[in-house]
Amino acid sequence: MSAGASGIDRLVVVGASLAGMRAVEAARADGFDGEIVLIGDEEHLPYDRPPLSKQLLDEALDVPWFHTETHYRDDLGVELQLGAPAVGIDPERQEIITVDRAVPYDAAVIATGARPRALPGISGLADVTTLRTVDDARRVRGALDEGRRLLIIGGGFIGAEVASAARRRSLPVTVIEASPYPLERALGREMGKALSAMHARSGVDLRIGTSVVELERHGDEIVAAMLSDRSTVACDFVLVSVGAIPNTAWLRESGVALAPDGGVVCDRFLESSLPGVYAAGDIAYFPNSVTGRHGRIEHWTSANEQGALAARNAVGHEKREYSTVPYVWSDWYGNRIQFVGRISDQAPVVVSGAIDESRFIALYRDDDRVVGAVSVNEPGRIMKERRRIAQGASWSEALAAHAAPAH
């Protein structure tokens, strides 16, 4: 597909992220030979984020860059505008407005991701950080190298991965979780309870149903955290990991439709309410025909898929619908946790292994359909569950697959 054939001569991608990088790659792979501009708010080249809370905290690894600057410039023919955050869109003039210029577009892909949710009175203080960027990861790695006493506010995937890295160094770690169990909203109470046992087995002090009220300091140094249950936790470095917010505040005056959670409202082709402007990654709020629900998916796999499809739809003649079975993975204390699909109101059923042996598969049902699955230390089997969910398998079919003898 050439630029002239599609009537699109210039594609602008906002967000030098996984989704943004996949967008420029896919456009070129499909034969688009017009101009491509990649805009990013960080001065860094695009890099992979999952290693930031995994390998980069443990090993002396280089930053996980996707490509070199030469590859973007010479092989992909991409103009990089890094360190230049977008501040608006002018749909009448078809321009992306950055802090220092206006960038014309014929088609655009918005992939500005999400930013960590802040905690009033805590976020932004010295020795308090989030973990979203490579600079954040370097700061956390430095704290671990120094043997700091770590307090993690939020028991989600990232918080647990950082706790795992700290415990591999035998450092003291306390995890504060406001919900009755970590990951209760993501995986349901039963699986949240099951996974939270990994913290205790690994020597982590998990405090549930409570929150941080105040950080106590001696001079410039944190020495303790006071909790809502009136207990006190000794610490000298704090990671705030309480979710993320779509990076869409810069779009509020552009006329683009935003969902109540701040996501960019898209159709099934990932096109926003502004003609020719598509969204991908954490910000895309779209109708998913597989799950039957509208929403955003803040997972690596979806950003990878959406970035490519949004670009192809933006510069091509034929548009393709995006639908998916969500997939996320995490590594805790030497255990591989994987989740596909969605949870339901009904309790999950363990169909293979046993929870107390830290090796199992559990399925979620909605009426007579299997809609989700979570596994621990079964890395080779979870994708079969993802395929079954995508195919609309019935609950009885899913149970029968696990009842059949292995070959």
Describe the structure.
This protein is of the alpha/beta class. The protein folds into three domains: 3-115 and 245-315, 3-Layer(bba) Sandwich (FAD/NAD(P)-binding domain), CATH 3.50.50.60; 118-242, FAD/NAD(P)-binding domain (3-Layer(bba) Sandwich), CATH 3.50.50.60; 334-403, FAD/NAD-linked reductase, C-terminal dimerisation domain (Enolase-like, domain 1, 2-Layer Sandwich), CATH 3.30.390.30. It contains ten helices and 26 strands. Strands 3-2-1-7-19 form a five-stranded parallel β-sheet. The longest helix is centred in the last third of the chain and has 16 residues, at 300-315. It starts with a helix and ends with a helix. The model has no long low-confidence stretch (mean pLDDT 94). Residues 327-402 form the Reductase C-terminal domain.
Short description:
With 407 residues, the chain is α/β, with parallel strands linked by helices. 24% of the residues lie in helices and 30% in strands.
Q: Give the assembly state of these chains.
A: single chain
Label the structural class: alpha/beta
Sum up the overall morphology in one term. globular
Helix tally equals: 10
Low-confidence stretches: none
Name the CATH superfamily assignment of the largest domain.
FAD/NAD(P)-binding domain
What percent of the residues sit in helical stretches (DSSP H or I)?
10-25%
How is the biggest beta sheet arranged?
Answer: 5 strands, parallel
State the end-to-end CA separation: 45 Å
